[in-house]
Amino acid sequence: MNQPPNENSAAIETSYRDYLEGLLNNDRQRCRDSFEKWLASDAELRTLYEGLVQRSLYEVGNLWERGRISVATEHLATAITESLLNLTYPRLFARPRQGKSAIIACVADEYHQIGGKIVADIFELNGWNGYFLGANTPVRDVKAIIEEKHPDVVVLSVTLSFNLDAVVSYAAEIRAAFPEIPILVGGQAFRWGGRERFDHIPGVRCLTSLGELEMWIKNGENHV
Ligand code: B12
């Protein structure tokens, strides 16, 4: 059996391999065992999100793109991962509440929502309320809930590069309606560039990793 992961990179690698094998074999129980070992270890949750969840799904995507696994296996891998993410909840809500909140959304026609959910969970982990609206949310509905909740920040998560136009337009529209609320944008789409497209919209920052996000949560607008 593999070791629980800690700072030991060999154990982390073994655990990742085990989880990936579980995903590729549609074996939810194996994935669950591996996931729970990470949770029981002293590794930070961020390493579980990036080192296990993100890394394994990127590999699933590569295999699917090369025709090495079926669409059904890719969908099952996604479903297994989404179900296991909620196992982090006891750790997420253990921190003292900060009285702050974030609204996290994906733009219209963006159906990749796992990254956005993880971002919402990072806010919870840091004592904020993370209101996660999920995939494919029309801008009028994002604005309606901002009006209702008065969040401290709005986050737009984007995976598909061809959705960047929509993110620019959402950011501009939200900013025009709520000029005092900062907006963060991020996600896989920026692997292929695009940060500069937000330069002209005041109050919008593009962050590329969960580490940067945690720095922003801790330091707010003073984050450099
Ligand atoms: C699962 C999946 C789907 C599922 C999504 C279901 C769901 N519930 O989310 C479904 C089946 C819907 C799907 C559909 C499609 N998909 Co898809 N999908 C994937 C897959 C395999 C995994 C996505 C995922 O969850 N990744 C894991 C998460 C954790 O990673 P992440 O999103 O990057 O998030 C991390 C960071 O980016 C960060 N982050 C995210 N947001 C933010 C925001 C801020 C502020 C910060 C700081 C950080 C941050 O946080 C996370 C940290 O772990 C990827 C492969 C891949 N490389 O990701 C392909 C992939 C994204 N899909 C792809 C494609 C092409 C499609 C389709 C067009 C396929 C088709 N022909 O229909 C459609 C498009 C649908 C649409 N309009 O959105 C391509 C995109 C290529 C590109 N250049 O844009 C990929 C890369 C596959 C590939 N290798 O080709 N897909």
Distance between the termini: 43 Å
> What would you report as the Rg, rounded to the nearest angstrom?
18 Å
Write out the strand line-up for the largest beta sheet, numbering strands in chain order.
Answer: 2-1-3-4-5
The CATH homologous superfamily of the largest domain is termed: Cobalamin-binding domain
CATH fold assignment of the largest domain: Rossmann fold
List SSEs in N-to-C order: HHHHHEHEHEHEEH
Extended strand count:
5
Strand content: 5-15%
Average pLDDT taken over every residue:
93
Describe, in plain words, how this protein is organized in 3D.
52% of the residues lie in helices and 9% in strands. By secondary structure, it is of the alpha/beta class. It folds into two domains: 9-91, Methyltransferase, Methionine Synthase (B12-binding Domains), Chain A, domain 1, CATH 1.10.1240.10; 95-222, Cobalamin-binding domain (Rossmann fold), CATH 3.40.50. β1 (101-105), α6 and β2 (129-132) form a beta-alpha-beta unit. Cobalamin is lined by residues 49-50, 53-54, 57-58, 60-62, 65, 74-75, 78, 109-116, 118-119, 155, 157, 159-161, 184-188, 207, 210, 212-213.
